[in-house]
Amino acid sequence: MARLTIADLQARAAAPKPAPDKPVIRVGMSTCGLAAGAEPVFNALTEEAAARKVELRVARTGCAGMCSMEPLVEVQVPGQAAVMFGEVTPEFARSIIAAMAAGKPLPAESRAPSIAQLARIAGEPVGTGDEPIQYRIVMRNCGVIDPEEIDEYMDRGGYQSLAKVLSTMSPEDVIEEMKTAGLRGRGGAGFPAWLKWKLTRESVGDEHIIVCNGDEGDPGAYMDRSVLEGDPHAVLEGMLIGGYVIGAKQGYFYIRAEYPLAIQRIEKALRQARANGLLGNNILGTDFSFNVEVRLGAGAFVCGEETALIASLEGKRGTPTPRPPYPSVKGLWGQPTMINNVESLANISQIMLHGAEWFSKIGVGRSSGTKVFAVTGQVKHAGLVEIPMGVTLRQVVEGICGGSASDTPIKAVQTGGPSGGLIPASELDTPITYEDLIKLGSFMGSGGMIVMDENDDIVELSKFYLKFCVEESCGKCAPCRIGGTQMLRVLTKIADGNGTEADIATIRRLARAMQKASLCGLGQGAPNPVLSALRYFEPEFRGRLASGKN
Amino acid sequence: MSPTQTEEVALIAKRWKNKRGTLIMALHGLQDRYGYVPRDAAMQLGEAMDVPLARIYEVLTFYNYFRLESPGKHVVSVCLGTACYLKGAPQLLEQASKELGIKAGETSADGEHHLQVVRCVGCCGLAPVVTVNEELLAKVTPETLAAHLKAPVATENGKA
């Protein structure tokens, strides 16, 4: 393959897009699709099309987001609106081809909303009809392109942003643009991305390093997996731009070992980028040289914390160290290191391509842009949603995800995973922004959103989260190690019906100590699920006390 | 240690030796090959990469992903992520434990099954999820779990 230059990419952008001449059938083949049986569906489609001699292309794509309806198959006939089918079986797949071969309308059953009906897509014209709540920037290619084909990514404007940055913008220009855009860290804490980029750039060191944090540890969240699997080049393009800005020559993807498909697709993307002159020496014919390697996690939740992640990248136990010094000053091997989350990086190319003004108008106030959530638990349509910030929790849970999966009403929503908190159903009209979620005692988190109904036991769930943190505590600092264990003991006592009034006060006291004195976010955040449960559902805890029964 | 294993470990060590901070990657290499990290392989790796054995075990015992003992033929992993937890994964774990006669983290006496708990495999939309070796089972019910726990054993018996 030829090494591309800036001029090649510019020519590609200027060239008219060839109109599709034959139907395309897309099969979602990410981890969830494959688990639900996408492979036999894919085979049935190709076999049947060959047998009936139907001119069409069967394509593999990433996750379209409607995970509970996998396997998903989208049929796009040129000149017609795309039709999505959910829970497709190989037999049903054959019936789709049979209908197409006979020139009959597509089957009416098993219909699901198409991607165009689900969401607005960044950079594409607004459709007619009702505007969907979802807006896809990060997931714009998920379920649309074949993630293993760099050409499909480039056909959708891929690497145009890199070409623009390398040919027309200085690192300072990019930082200024990021500042106007107002992108904040999508790993959960919401630190302004531009500031992190600026601080790392200005730090002095022998080399500068950029790391993509793909250690998605929150149990109940899988946005990053879907993006890595569904659009790996978008994350890489974001990393390339970040690397250029901070003056890095080396980047690392740190990905959970539990995500083998994501690892495989990123590795393939890296090979393709190298072959096309998008990675390595003199990228796109410029002075910018940059290499990327993949490193695997090994099942430690704490490694999502920046300093623990660095220790793990150095091949050591993933124990955090006190900050400051921050990684931007002294990170991997003591060098200035910038760690960005998968979703943050996936936003970059779109911001540079469509401009900071465009991005800052999506979302509200200091929460600009979109956020991807993995909505799971007791909802009708579990899956991934990407919404402009400012949309309410109710719009997500009831509007997009169809509300409760049963007749039992929804009781609460949990965001932020093991460091987050519970939000009662009475607060569902709260807009999703960094600040509003903190006000409720939870936080944005990486994007896990677990929906509970009235049958779910809040005390048990608090115990579940706390137990998770106790088991994942690295043991380095006493407040987390001892505080967590003691709190779990007291909470178990309450859950078992042996608690007393004093135990609730003890939990609150231990929580304060852990929040104030723990070394890292794991220990500081561990009491949050319990505290927020107490804040909104204290009667449930009191009802379990030994004295409460008398 | 067999000559092939010696060769394989030497290859893994060679691949990572000259790159900074790659002990964990080399250990992944061992576990990918053998299903766990055998002690003799860890010793050889340590010598080849110039890492003390104590350092290797310090790392191995910290990370949940690494296994120090052979897991048996069929690794049954019950996901206990939040979504699976809410959808009845604890009951599935109990059922698997009862039917296989082992607790989480144990291998059956005949070496057929290893039962373990995993933290979210990232398929929360299909909860509850159980994996048997590489195969991922979606929306698992007590019936489908029972069928999958029996299936591999039945095949073995069939062959015998």
Give a written overview of the molecule.
The complex is a heterodimer of chains A (550) and B (160). With 550 residues, chain A is α/β, with parallel strands linked by helices. Chain A folds into 4 domains: 6-112, Glutaredoxin (3-Layer(aba) Sandwich), CATH 3.40.30; 150-356, Rossmann fold, CATH 3.40.50.11540; 363-453, Ubiquitin-like (UB roll) (Roll), CATH 3.10.20; 458-549, NADH-ubiquinone oxidoreductase 51kDa subunit, iron-sulphur binding domain (de novo design (two linked rop proteins)), CATH 1.20.1440.230. Chain A is built from 23 helices and 18 strands. In chain A, helix 7 (160-168) packs parallel to helix 11 (232-246). The longest helix of chain A is centred in the last third of the chain and has 18 residues, at 478-495. Chain A starts with 5 loop residues before the first helix and ends with a helix. With 160 residues, chain B is α+β, with helices and mostly antiparallel strands. The longest helix of chain B is centred in the last third of the chain and has 18 residues, at 142-159. Residues 153-160 of chain B have low confidence and may be disordered. Chain B has 2 domains: 3-62, no CATH class; 74-159, Glutaredoxin, CATH 3.40.30.10. Chain B has a 4-stranded mixed β-sheet with strand order 2-1-3-4, with helices on one face. Chain B has 7 helices and 4 strands. Chain B is elongated, with a radius of gyration of 18 Å. Helix content of chain B is 52%, strand content 11%. In chain B, helix 1 (3-17) runs antiparallel to helix 2 and helix 1 (3-17) packs across helix 3 (39-49). Chain B has helices spanning 3-17, 23-34, 39-49, 53-62, 82-86, 89-100, 142-159, and strands at 74-79, 113-118, 130-132, 135-137. The chains are: A alpha/beta (550), B alpha+beta (160).
